[in-house]
Amino acid sequence: MNFNVDHSIVSTVVSELHKVCIARSVIPILSGIKIVASKNGLKLTGGNSEIFIEKTIPLELNGEKVVEVIEEGSVVVQSKFINEILKKLSGNVHVQADLNNAIRIQSDEVVMKIPGFCAEEYPKLPEVHAQQSVELPLGTIKEAIQQTIFAVSKNDVKPVLTGVRMEFEKGKLICIATDSNRMSRCELPIPSELNKAFVVPAASMLEVINLKEADATILSILQEGNLLVMETEHTKLVSVLIEGNYPVTQGLIPTGYMSSITLHRKALQNGVDRACVFSRELKHNNVLLKLCDRTTISISSSSTEMGMIEERQKVVHMVGLDSFEITLDGKYLVEALRGIKEEFVEIQFNGAMKPIVIKPAQSNTYVQLISPRRTH
Amino acid sequence: MNFNVDHSIVSTVVSELHKVCIARSVIPILSGIKIVASKNGLKLTGGNSEIFIEKTIPLELNGEKVVEVIEEGSVVVQSKFINEILKKLSGNVHVQADLNNAIRIQSDEVVMKIPGFCAEEYPKLPEVHAQQSVELPLGTIKEAIQQTIFAVSKNDVKPVLTGVRMEFEKGKLICIATDSNRMSRCELPIPSELNKAFVVPAASMLEVINLKEADATILSILQEGNLLVMETEHTKLVSVLIEGNYPVTQGLIPTGYMSSITLHRKALQNGVDRACVFSRELKHNNVLLKLCDRTTISISSSSTEMGMIEERQKVVHMVGLDSFEITLDGKYLVEALRGIKEEFVEIQFNGAMKPIVIKPAQSNTYVQLISPRRTH
């Protein structure tokens, strides 16, 4: 193997792969990055037990020559090491590997010789032959993931809750995440008649968010068995799926309400964030939302050690009964509000013991539920 | 106590003080910030066992009114808490404390009530009455500290080596730091005939570097017994000094050399930094500098696990014998080079078993020594 590659491009790709590579493994080759040089350019692969990422560096990018392959071949190199050394180089990088997998890297006056592994011993990615793929702009799917992923369960008691559920129904994709105390649900129209549902590990979904490619890039999604393949022009992600029975979420979202108030989203988020400072001692972040009158809401919290905070905010619009008093986990509420981009947010109340509904005002495609805290 | 203060100013001051406050203390008041409101403005104090910092917020700053004192008084408030809550406020902050030290903070529509402590119970800073103070521009003293502090010892075996030694001799100030394997020495001309020497804890020196005031601000330095007071217009630092016998460093710096080479400082620093990647396994960072001929130097390192790296750099200027081959801790060398601002650096060699001298070319006021590594 023998090739030249542009430094900034290869070091970006390697640092992206390095993040998913296993840091330390009994089998050293598993913490490596596989490099394949062919007449079409370079292909680099790295991964862990949940996800593998394959990145392509073509011969030309935006009309500029970035790779020159002098001799085809392949090798595996320790990810931590190649990542670190590439960061400290600049200019053109010349990589050579001999039949013993000894690698020689040269950049200007700097020469390195490092041991490599035989690429044949690197695990082969399973092939997925599913017929039906869904194609979506990367920006759209990123947004749907960002609007739900924070609500996944952070502990492994119910593994299926640690992932984001993707439900394909004719003409739409629904993303759902829940940790039993809160739920986030986002619905997108898609040009597909696919009908299936699966749960993707949160870590794999994060890798989709981390993709550096333009929002307009098309991401194709393909599922078969317990594997999910997501692919753009230069990147292929192969993730396992989480097996298990996902709780039924249909019907959880109430169709009516006792009262509904509309508030400034950003102001509410800041107010609840402040209140959280005062409610940390029990690790509960209990924050009380209480309607003072039809035009004012009070956000408050208190703790014996730290004292109390109270602030009032204007209600923009109100429908229904005057009673509205609920104690919530303030951190959940802040995260829910952060997922919303719109200026105004609607909060629907169905009694102090029922979950509240949080959604952008005048929209039903993005809905969140948060269960109240019992305070006694 | 009752005052109004500009949010951005008070939150900057509190966050600076918070960094030196003890995080958790058996005596809660010791992890607090003392606030004194008087007709001249506010005075805030925080600290730990090594250093106390007192910050003044005057009634006016740059012609703008920033404090309005309605009623004089004082109180102590938990530092962690006040720091966190101030970050989440904006605009004008109104602070009131009653006779029971209960504090009420209001900013716009946000009201907080928090418990405080009696300011009388906060430790009183010792007074220093030394007659002779030295006055220096803050920027100058910051630079001298930055050029030496990295060389202090990182372990407590010899406590006196964990500090920066300041030696005042007639007309000059010498800052020295050493951990026995390397030494950094910086000399400044000063308009003072003071003659004394003391060792300041590195943590206190860092607080001088962290001061946000302009480089031209005058810092006055005053020492008495085991205390050092450093003061600018709005900040007063009171630090303990480290007692003990500082090693004699005079005479350590060789007056001649076998050979001397001048190199590009930044290129050398990058080269040694790269070489360090390959020499990490023994925690030794062994890097070999070797003269190839009178115009070229080779920087190399190797490890059985990682392989080897070698690069060549041009020698800008060379005096003396052709023999130059020494193994050093590359990390020490990188830190030494980072302290130098000049474009070219001179390295003086006195044999493979003697320390090398590193200094800006054509200057003798900033000199560093690094002992070689024994490789066998």
UniProtKB/TrEMBL annotation, chains A, B:
Give one GO term, molecular function aspect: DNA-directed DNA polymerase activity
Keywords assigned by UniProt, alphabetized: Cytoplasm, DNA replication, DNA-binding, DNA-directed DNA polymerase, Nucleotidyltransferase, Transferase
One Pfam family this sequence matches? DNA_pol3_beta_2
Domain DNA polymerase III beta sliding clamp central, by residue range, is 136-247
Q: Which positions fall inside the DNA polymerase III beta sliding clamp N-terminal domain?
A: 1-126
UniProt subcellular location: Cytoplasm
InterPro entries in the cross-refs: DNA_clamp_sf, DNA_polIII_beta, DNA_polIII_beta_C, DNA_polIII_beta_cen, DNA_polIII_beta_N
User: Which coarse location class applies to the principal site listed for this UniProt protein?
Assistant: cytoplasm
Q: Which residues form the DNA polymerase III beta sliding clamp C-terminal domain?
A: 252-373
Q: What does this protein do?
A: Confers DNA tethering and processivity to DNA polymerases and other proteins. Acts as a clamp, forming a ring around DNA (a reaction catalyzed by the clamp-loading complex) which diffuses in an ATP-independent manner freely and bidirectionally along dsDNA. Initially characterized for its ability to contact the catalytic subunit of DNA polymerase III (Pol III), a complex, multichain enzyme responsible for most of the replicative synthesis in bacteria; Pol III exhibits 3'-5' exonuclease proofreading activity.
What does the record note on quaternary structure?
Forms a ring-shaped head-to-tail homodimer around DNA.
Which protein family is named in the record? Belongs to the beta sliding clamp family.
What is the protein's name according to its record? Beta sliding clamp
Q: Which organism is it from?
A: Sporosarcina saromensis
Q: What gene does the UniProt entry assign to this protein? A: dnaN
